[in-house]
Here is the input.
Amino acid sequence: MASKRGLSIKLVGYVAAGVMLTSTAIGIGRVHTEQSHLSELLRQSGQGIANTAAAGAASLVAGYDYGNLEILSNNVAQQAGVIHVAIRNASDRIVTQTEKQMDTPSRRFQAAIVFDNKNIGEVTVGLSTETEDKAIRALYLRILVEQIVFAGILGLILFVITSRGIVAPIHRVTETMEAATAKGAPYVAEALPVNSEDEIGRLIAVFNKLNRALADYYAQLQGKVQAADQALKDKNIELVARTEELEHTLELLGSMATTDWLTKLPNRRQFDETFDRLIGQAERFGEPLTLVLFDIDHFKQINDGHGHAAGDEVLHQIGNLAKDMVRKADLPARLGGDEFAVILYHTEEAQAEAFMRQLIDKIRSQPFHYNGSRIPVTISAGAAEYGGANTSPQALYFAADRALYSAKHQGRDRYALYSTLAKETT
Here is the structure.
């Protein structure tokens, strides 16, 4: 019912809007005509009062009878609508004036005072336009009420006509289609009756024709869909298997591109990318960051004395120790060969010193074995904190590397801090 009335209301609204616009245009013309007529009546009345006052004042101005002029002015001011009277002599000097204290709009009229065919002064009369304004407002209100009533009656008539002759047949088509849609049917099961030969009847006939064509096409399509559906299922099973294989391959390639194959730590590429990002983050939020570099003391002797397989095992175990000791926010990495790095985020140099001390002690005490032989392993480490001159990845890496070189130069199996080296240099 809501959709049925919606179309009727729209049609009524369009016609009513046209009626109201036309009525408004007519009303504006009527108001303009009435306003001109009222304005002319006011002008004639005001000018007549001014002319009468000028005729009465002629002999009084000529005789300098100011007392009677004042009486004349007061009498004129007593007339309906008059709020101002002023009488001037030939020198344009006001000889008498009467003013009512009224806050209303007004129009002024002038008349010359003539005595013996000579202009000896002027009378000015101010006439209130309040009566004219009230009449215009009443006219506006009357026209507004007329057009509202007219539009309402016409709208009601059109509502009844359109509801029965236009909207009802369209509503039947809509309800039939909605019922079919609600049941999930692709077409309407039965043809709709055609009760007229006008546009509505032709619309229903075209709908029935299209509906029959749709039913035939749907029957043909169903057969093709069933055949294609089975083929699609077979292809989908094959596609799923290939997709899983491809995802596994991509995952393996991604891991190989960013992970060291031996220690399973991030490789140099992953380290460089993360290092740049963490440097920017530390600078943006003002948070401390320290880089630790370490390598295995005399690693070449391990390879030469026990074989490269033993060296690989040592690297693997040291990688596991590094992963166990860091936090989730930190990043341990193998840079290549026997060189490792740990980015300690939100960590100052003093905390990094404790980390290096613990790491060196743990590796020194860790029993490294290969083929029944114990392999003594120690490391040397160096650390530098972000800040000062070390505000770029290159500068911070160079500073940590200098500290590592200092630890190795001092005898290995120890650590060094870049800040200590900087103080000794200065």
